[in-house]
Amino acid sequence: MRLASALISCVLCVTGTVGGAWLSRPASVDYGSLLSKASDIYAVTDERGDATRLYVVNNASNAAISRIPGAAAELPWKVNVTYSLDGPNVEANEISGASGLVGIYIDVKPQSSAANHTIPVVTFTVPTQVTGDISADNTASVATQGSDIVVAAAGNVSSGLKFSCYMDAKKFSMGAVTLAALPSSGEPSVGADPQAAGSATQSEADAGDQTAADTDASQLIANSATLVGSLTDAGSGEHQQLIDQLDALRSNERALDKSVVAERKVTHKQAFDAYMAAYVGAYTDHLSGSIGDSSQLSALMGTAGELSKNTPLAQAVIDLADAVNNVSAAHQHAGAVEALDEVIRRIQQQGTTGLADDLNTEAAEEATKGSKQYAEGQSQLSAAMIPYSMKYTDVYTANLSALTGGTSSGAGIHEQQAIAETNSSDDLTEAQSKVDAAMSTLATASEHTGKAAALRQIVLRFSDQFASSGNVQNASSGSGSVDQAHALAGLADAQSQSFYGKTRAAEAKRKASAARKQAKAAQRQQSQHADASLVDDTMSLSSADVMHYANGVNSSIGSSQTADTFAGGKLNSADGSTEQSSGKFKNAVSQAGDSMDVAPTLFGFGSGGTLLKHDMSTLVNETVEISDAGELLNQAVAQINTSAVQQKTAGTRYLIVVPTV
Predict the structure, then answer these.
(1) Fold assignment, 34-232+622-658
(2) pLDDT tens-digit readout, 524-576
(3) 65: left (phi over 0), alpha (psi -120 to 50) or beta
(4) Which contiguous run of DSSP H or E holds residue 68?
(5) Contacts for 507-510 with beta carbons within 8 Å, 24 or more apart?
(6) 51: DSSP letter
(7) Which residue stretches belong to region Disordered (predicted)?
(8) I need a labelling partner for 188 at 20 to 30 A (CA). Which of 163, 232, 270, 597 fits?
């Protein structure tokens, strides 16, 4: 073993040749010249404050952009962000999503000699849905911009910046911290071109002729927006027609979200009231003897027996199930609006490069969230409706007893009045809140489902306008050969002709054909009905899948009938027909996922090569974050309005994005 180790060590130490090429460590690259001419340097740091790469812009070379390792230059300032919750300090993972009195503490300290010539400007946002107001030190400015509260502050050369702010938060979150290091007019920053520094003095002398667009801050902001375009086809102008089409769809979905939800809420309220009236109506028919102030067990048992028969109560259950499904499904339009918001923003920021692949991936994730949350909503509704029904019956019994003098004789005469008094009772408030919470969960689930459906439809309808090597676009090209090549990639010739290889190719052709048909149908619909909704808001579960709570009452009172009686297979409706408990909603989600499935890529070595795809998503995401930081800095500049952000020098400017919670 020692001999083997020694031999390996010798091999690694001796420089040899293979094919005429010397095996040696590549010479380290000197980025000094590039950095000395840098106009702007951008970076996104990790949680430790270290940048993996730097984006260097040289305005003298027509804003040429270079990407270099983060270790090539030390950033001038380091940001330390800490948090507190109701007093004590907490870690970032503890503050995320927390509610209470939240404190944010920003400490910006010098990290390199460049801090001696730059002024730190810090800004971040907190969504208004998290808090309505933020109190901060006098050194910081706080202002509301749209749906965000913007906190901004400027420090001093060398000494840095330190401030804190507090808020009453609900499910706390905040945006990334943006740190701009703007050169001071006193001296050029380290790395600046001396010749350019001389011209800076003249520029300062001519400060009277300076425009707002000439300042260091404005140039830093302007160049941040060009980074994404350097990696993608963003900003080319060719996507405006696509954006206009998506914007029209968004307006339509917003209108549908408002009108359909409002209409179906009314229908759901009517169905809910009708169900409770049918429930206590059946209960009243089974009352006997004296009526107390709480539910009569024998009457409840008789009522439970009607759930599995062809009765008005069973029909009321079906009607309420439909209403629950419909009002929940209506919220898919809100999900579609969110999807369109996101796609439009992404196209504006990064063009359509790689967009189809990203949207398909996100659609699958949203569909999974929707399916899981809908199941949670069902369980929540079931758990809420059992106590609600029992509480309702208790209150109704007490009201009816007061009207009849405590006897079941003639109870039907007072039924409607007792129902009206029960509906207006404050005793139902707590039980009703749990039902409302369950309905909210179902609505949120449908938003995820709607977003998934909308993302898939966008890919299908506009696949010919996406600059992507995405599967759907390839599938819609009219040829199955590309997909067959994908299916066989990495297989040896003998394998490709095997039963496995031929089966894989046949599967790829089948899926490619299905995808082509889907894409063509969606594109045809878009051309013929440009305002057609991206979602199907009529999709619903069978009544048995939603209304387990109705049969749950049986077990809660000790009835021998179980949930299987009502939800295990078929439910008789009032007209004698049956409804199958088939889980339509889940099946529909599953089928939608299957329809977007494509033949997998097989990776391997050999004469066939591989289909390894260069993933630029990390670079694109970083440049999008930097672009967003530039927009935020623009708001901060207008907000703090100090001399620090009104200068024009020849020094190097920095824009650093520090992720938070």
Answers:
(1) Immunoglobulin-like (2.60.40)
(2) 665 555 568 888 887 544 445 444 444 444 443 333 333 333 333 333 333 33
(3) beta
(4) strand 64-69
(5) 507/599, 508/480, 508/483, 508/484, 508/598, 508/599, 509/480, 509/483, 509/484
(6) B
(7) 184-213, 507-533
(8) 163
